[in-house]
């Protein structure tokens, strides 16, 4: 099951966040900061799946933006990896050559 | 009031903020503006304000005051308002707030709206955050929408149904008739969501699962063939632009179907047979050059492993995994290692073939891969390859990150214990681990090693020589120093006399040995536990060494006034030994007898649960270690049980120092050092709590009191529980009860949990049961061991609580057991 879906940039600013389980609001920022720290410290040729607390993070980097999805054990990691790419492609089509600015300004559209 | 700014303006302003404080200021100002606008009940700009509020919520600021506004927006007629209102509801509201119930009526109306987009919005929101009350009220509407012809709505309704089932499992039957036609759709969206719905139903309820496996519908065929047909179409069909992802047609749907097939085929031969062909086809036809293909193959492999597939298929699956391992892409290797971990239990030989690749992965740079490779390597070690594997693992231990060292060290110890080809090799390996990763070794490994060393009698000289050499240079690694000082204390005479067959004997004088031990004592790097070991070792040497007894006496008396209470206590006791009980000293400080070799309790192989193997490795380590102090004391008590004089003192110095000093204090509290003999029963009463705390494996008692009749403690509803008793002659306050639970009904009882409570004067310890399923018709039993400590010899009484699943429902029962035979507690 997917626990959360985040798009965070390299400076740690959250551009998009969607939680599928209840997480306290102050814990959210902490969670996002830790997650992005984990992802930033990885090099290019390391694998995209990290084990964090009791779930896995699947992340993918697109220019300066990280898309991170938190999943639990029952989910197929590679399928989620593909899902991330699919999502980005959809955004690309929608905004025609999407960039980080598009993501930050059209929050509600992306959410729905 | 001027019109509130638009969302974009807000975002632009926030982006210009340089510091966190500036951002907070801007947000607070805007929040205040929004709040006053809400108070004015401004309809036109409400949606803009709520949108801004949602943005601020995403950044992490509190936004709960907008909840009611969201509700007002939902109730409005404009689509833009509804849109933002539902979005806000999904983000800000959940079942914890009471306000959400007000939404129910709105959602109900919107579910019947004329525009499909509004209906879609309502379904989304319900599926996202609907509470159980809302779901109960609206399930009927959702079910109706599941049957419409509009595919946009059907897929949303299916997802909403999934959420409803999760919240209120009883409503599952309501959706059953609607699912019959779901798979006949052409639209992939609807197919995908229906497969999700079916998956959820099958996972939640075994009845549903049975229903789906067997049902024969009038017009269409069974579920499994239907799924197989859909999957086949997906693979065989040519290029279809709307579903194509890098050359493969709708991989997401393929993966979902494979997962559902996995659930259907688990433990079921017929379904598995129907799937064999299609699985083989997918496995061979999928392109592996892109990640997409690999994702599908991964899911296929998992499915093959889980169902009752034929062996050819399994070999195919493991070969695919082997191919993954050789791939350059890290993700794929990681995934392969994870799945191999899951399958190594069942298909051990097949995985062995890939051993060399796995060992290579140990050298990978990536942390996740290294961890997986390490776990898998431990699972693959067996009698044949242990030397080679151990070499690789030791090399890995040298170079890996600190977080791995502890786990690696424990794993190596376990493997070495099970498969050591010779004692010398075993000791060498342990020495190597201690010297390379000494400070990361777990504390409970030390007593294990000590026991091992004691048992390999012929290796004593060799061992002590090597240990001595190891700590000569460097005595900062605590476990190493502890083991070394213990050994030197025990076998110091062998060290000094210079006899060693295995290695070149080194010339060591008694003074040098004492030098080393004293420096350990003085050093700041030694933990207080280590110091305790060292002091005891020095004391033992007083009987083994001949010319340096005075020096030892001096050292011991210095520590009589040490600040560390533990050290002081020991020193004072040893002093007393020198002064008043010198005649006893040789007998007390005699060589330790060989300890009984104890097999580890429970499974020693690494248990796989979706890749989490660490916990099982850790759990098996404590049981053997805690046994050591018990057997030590047992033997010593036997040794000295005959003498009438203070037997408590000897147990103190030779007790494993790692146990908290508090226990020693308790013991000595009873003790009277002025010379009048403490009555012999005193130590026995003080002993048992520690004995029991240490004992976690099947009873050690060599002298079991025979002839206590067993009783039937409980016999109701087909469940019968028998108690059999064992008592030891060395420790009459401990009773060991073995329970056996049997089931005479026609259905198995699963998830059986046995709990017991005893009156306050007793102490109870429950060990883990043999399993949690009692098979039907008395064909098998569950055994569990209970230890009861009864120091005051009161009549044994027990209250038991049983919980188990029988015939699909959970059962629970409380009972009192009063019919214990008198021999069990007197």
Automatic annotation (TrEMBL), chain A:
<comment type="function">
    <text>Component of the adaptor protein complex 4 (AP-4). Adaptor protein complexes are vesicle coat components involved both in vesicle formation and cargo selection. They control the vesicular transport of proteins in different trafficking pathways. AP-4 forms a non clathrin-associated coat on vesicles departing the trans-Golgi network (TGN) and may be involved in the targeting of proteins from the trans-Golgi network (TGN) to the endosomal-lysosomal system.</text>
</comment>
<dbReference type="InterPro" id="IPR011012">
    <property type="entry name" value="Longin-like_dom_sf"/>
</dbReference>
<keyword id="KW-0813">Transport</keyword>
<keyword id="KW-0653">Protein transport</keyword>
<dbReference type="GO" id="GO:0006886">
    <property type="term" value="P:intracellular protein transport"/>
</dbReference>
<comment type="similarity">
    <text>Belongs to the adaptor complexes small subunit family.</text>
</comment>
<protein>
    <recommendedName>
        <fullName>AP complex subunit sigma</fullName>
    </recommendedName>
</protein>
<dbReference type="InterPro" id="IPR022775">
    <property type="entry name" value="AP_mu_sigma_su"/>
</dbReference>
<dbReference type="GO" id="GO:0005737">
    <property type="term" value="C:cytoplasm"/>
</dbReference>
<keyword id="KW-0472">Membrane</keyword>
<dbReference type="InterPro" id="IPR016635">
    <property type="entry name" value="AP_complex_ssu"/>
</dbReference>
<comment type="subunit">
    <text>Adaptor protein complex 4 (AP-4) is a heterotetramer composed of two large adaptins (epsilon-type subunit AP4E1 and beta-type subunit AP4B1), a medium adaptin (mu-type subunit AP4M1) and a small adaptin (sigma-type AP4S1).</text>
</comment>
<dbReference type="GO" id="GO:0012505">
    <property type="term" value="C:endomembrane system"/>
</dbReference>
<feature type="domain" description="AP complex mu/sigma subunit">
    <location>
        <begin position="1"/>
        <end position="110"/>
    </location>
</feature>
<dbReference type="Pfam" id="PF01217">
    <property type="entry name" value="Clat_adaptor_s"/>
</dbReference>
UniProtKB/TrEMBL annotation, chain B:
<dbReference type="GO" id="GO:0016192">
    <property type="term" value="P:vesicle-mediated transport"/>
</dbReference>
<dbReference type="InterPro" id="IPR013041">
    <property type="entry name" value="Clathrin_app_Ig-like_sf"/>
</dbReference>
<dbReference type="Pfam" id="PF01602">
    <property type="entry name" value="Adaptin_N"/>
</dbReference>
<dbReference type="InterPro" id="IPR050840">
    <property type="entry name" value="Adaptor_Complx_Large_Subunit"/>
</dbReference>
<keyword id="KW-0813">Transport</keyword>
<dbReference type="InterPro" id="IPR011989">
    <property type="entry name" value="ARM-like"/>
</dbReference>
<dbReference type="Pfam" id="PF02883">
    <property type="entry name" value="Alpha_adaptinC2"/>
</dbReference>
<keyword id="KW-0963">Cytoplasm</keyword>
<feature type="region of interest" description="Disordered">
    <location>
        <begin position="605"/>
        <end position="630"/>
    </location>
</feature>
<feature type="domain" description="GAE">
    <location>
        <begin position="706"/>
        <end position="821"/>
    </location>
</feature>
<keyword id="KW-0168">Coated pit</keyword>
<dbReference type="InterPro" id="IPR017107">
    <property type="entry name" value="AP1_complex_gsu"/>
</dbReference>
<dbReference type="InterPro" id="IPR008152">
    <property type="entry name" value="Clathrin_a/b/g-adaptin_app_Ig"/>
</dbReference>
<dbReference type="GO" id="GO:0048471">
    <property type="term" value="C:perinuclear region of cytoplasm"/>
</dbReference>
<dbReference type="GO" id="GO:0005905">
    <property type="term" value="C:clathrin-coated pit"/>
</dbReference>
<dbReference type="InterPro" id="IPR002553">
    <property type="entry name" value="Clathrin/coatomer_adapt-like_N"/>
</dbReference>
<keyword id="KW-0968">Cytoplasmic vesicle</keyword>
<keyword id="KW-0472">Membrane</keyword>
<dbReference type="InterPro" id="IPR016024">
    <property type="entry name" value="ARM-type_fold"/>
</dbReference>
<comment type="function">
    <text>Subunit of clathrin-associated adaptor protein complex 1 that plays a role in protein sorting in the late-Golgi/trans-Golgi network (TGN) and/or endosomes. The AP complexes mediate both the recruitment of clathrin to membranes and the recognition of sorting signals within the cytosolic tails of transmembrane cargo molecules.</text>
</comment>
<dbReference type="InterPro" id="IPR008153">
    <property type="entry name" value="GAE_dom"/>
</dbReference>
<dbReference type="GO" id="GO:0006886">
    <property type="term" value="P:intracellular protein transport"/>
</dbReference>
């Amino acid at each position: 099951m997917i626990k959360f879906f985040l798009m965070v940039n390299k400076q740690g600013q959250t551009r998009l966040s969607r939680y599928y389980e209840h997480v306290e609001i102050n814990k959210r920022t902490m969670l996002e900061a830790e997650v992005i720290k984990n992802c930033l410290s990885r090099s290019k040729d390391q694998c995209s799946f990290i084990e964090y607390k009791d779930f896995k993070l699947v992340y993918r980097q697109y220019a300066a933006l990280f898309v991170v999805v938190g999943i639990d054990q029952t989910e197929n990691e590679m399928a989620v990896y593909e899902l991330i790419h699919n999502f980005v492609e959809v955004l690309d089509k929608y905004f025609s050559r999407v960039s980080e600015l598009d993501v930050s300004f059209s929050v509600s559209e992306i959410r729905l | 009031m001027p019109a509130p700014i638009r969302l974009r303006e807000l975002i632009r302003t926030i982006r210009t903020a340089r510091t966190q404080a500036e951002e907070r200021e801007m947000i607070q100002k805007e929040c205040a503006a929004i709040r006053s606008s809400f108070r004015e009940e401004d309809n036109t700009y409400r949606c803009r304000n709520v949108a801004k509020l949602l943005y601020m919520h995403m950044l992490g600021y509190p936004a709960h005051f907008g909840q009611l506004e969201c509700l007002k927006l939902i109730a409005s007629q404009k689509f833009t308002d509804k849109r933002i209102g539902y979005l806000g509801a999904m983000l800000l509201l959940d079942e914890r707030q009471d306000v959400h119930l007000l939404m129910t009526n709105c959602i109900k109306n919107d579910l019947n709206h004329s525009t499909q987009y509004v209906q879609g919005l309502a379904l989304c929101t319900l599926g996202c955050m609907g509470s159980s009350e809302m779901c109960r009220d609206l399930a009927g509407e959702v079910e109706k929408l599941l049957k419409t012809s509009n595919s946009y709505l059907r897929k949303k309704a299916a997802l909403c149904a999934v959420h409803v089932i999760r919240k209120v499992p009883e409503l599952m039957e309501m959706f059953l008739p609607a699912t019959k036609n779901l798979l006949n759709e052409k639209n992939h969206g609807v197919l995908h969501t229906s497969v999700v719905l079916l998956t959820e139903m099958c996972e939640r309820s075994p009845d549903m699962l049975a229903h789906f496996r067997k049902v024969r519908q009038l017009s269409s065929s069974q579920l499994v063939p239907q799924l197989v047909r859909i999957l086949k179409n997906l693979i065989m069909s040519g290029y279809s632009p709307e579903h194509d992802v890098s050359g493969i047609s709708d991989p997401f749907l393929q993966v979902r179907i494979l997962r559902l097939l996995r659930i259907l085929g688990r433990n079921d031969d017929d379904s598995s047979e129907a799937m064999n062909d299609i699985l083989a086809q997918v496995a061979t036809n999928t392109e592996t050059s892109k990640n997409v293909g690999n994702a599908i193959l991964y899911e296929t492999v998992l499915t093959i492993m889980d169902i009752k597939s034929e062996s050819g298929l399994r070999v195919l699956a493991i070969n695919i995994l082997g191919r993954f391992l050789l791939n350059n892409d890290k993700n794929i290797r990681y995934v392969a290692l994870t799945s191999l971990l899951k399958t190594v239990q069942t298909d051990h030989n097949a995985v062995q073939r890939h051993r060399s690749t796995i060992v290579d992965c140990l050298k990978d740079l990536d942390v996740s891969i290294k961890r997986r490779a390490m776990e898998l390597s431990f699972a693959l070690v067996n009698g044949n390859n242990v030397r080679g594997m151990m070499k690789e693992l030791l090399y890995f231990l040298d170079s890996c990150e600190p977080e791995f060292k502890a786990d690696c060290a424990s794993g190596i110890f376990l493997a070495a214990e099970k498969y050591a080809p010779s004692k010398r090799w075993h000791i060498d390996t342990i020495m190597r681990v201690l010297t390379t990763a000494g400070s990361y070794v777990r504390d409970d490994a030390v007593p294990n090693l000590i026991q091992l060393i004691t048992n390999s009698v012929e290796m004593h000289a060799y061992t002590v020589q090597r240990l001595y050499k190891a700590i000569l240079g460097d005595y900062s690694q605590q476990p190493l120093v502890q083991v070394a000082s213990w050994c030197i204390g025990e076998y110091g005479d062998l060290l000094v006399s210079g006899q060693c067959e295995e290695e070149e004997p080194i010339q060591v004088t008694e003074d040098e040995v004492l030098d080393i031990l004293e420096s350990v004592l003085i050093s700041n790097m030694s933990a207080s536990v280590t110091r305790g070991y060292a002091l005891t070792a020095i004391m033992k040497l007083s009987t083994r060494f001949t010319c340096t007894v005075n020096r030892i006496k001096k050292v011991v008396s210095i520590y009589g006034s040490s600040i560390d209470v533990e050290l002081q206590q020991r020193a004072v006791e040893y002093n007393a030994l020198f002064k008043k009980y010198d005649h006893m000293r040789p007998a007390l400080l005699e060589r330790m007898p060989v300890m009984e070799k104890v097999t580890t309790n429970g499974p020693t192989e690494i248990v796989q649960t979706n890749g989490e193997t660490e916990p099982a490795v850790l759990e098996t380590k404590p049981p053997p270690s805690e046994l050591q102090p018990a057997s030590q004391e047992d033997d010593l008590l036997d040794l000295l049980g005959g003498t009438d004089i203070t037997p408590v003192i000897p147990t103190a110095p030779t007790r494993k120092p790692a146990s908290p000093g508090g226990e020693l204090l308790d013991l000595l509290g009873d003790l009277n050092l002025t010379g009048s003999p403490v009555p012999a029963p005193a130590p026995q009463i003080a002993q048992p709590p520690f004995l029991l705390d240490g004992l976690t494996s099947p009873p050690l008692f060599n002298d079991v009191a025979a002839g206590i009749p067993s009783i039937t403690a409980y016999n109701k509803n087909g469940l019968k529980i028998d108690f059999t008793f064992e008592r030891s002659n060395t420790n009459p306050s401990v009773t060991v009860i073995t329970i056996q639970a049997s089931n005479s009904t026609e259905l198995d009882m699963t998830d059986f949990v046995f709990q017991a409570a005893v009156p306050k004067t007793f102490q109870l310890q429950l060990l883990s049961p043999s399993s949690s399923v009692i098979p039907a018709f008395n064909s098998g039993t569950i055994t569990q061991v209970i230890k009861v400590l009864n120091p005051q010899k009161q009549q044994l009484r027990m209250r038991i609580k049983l919980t188990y699943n029988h015939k699909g429902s959970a059962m629970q029962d409380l009972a009192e057991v009063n019919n214990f035979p008198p021999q069990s507690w007197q």
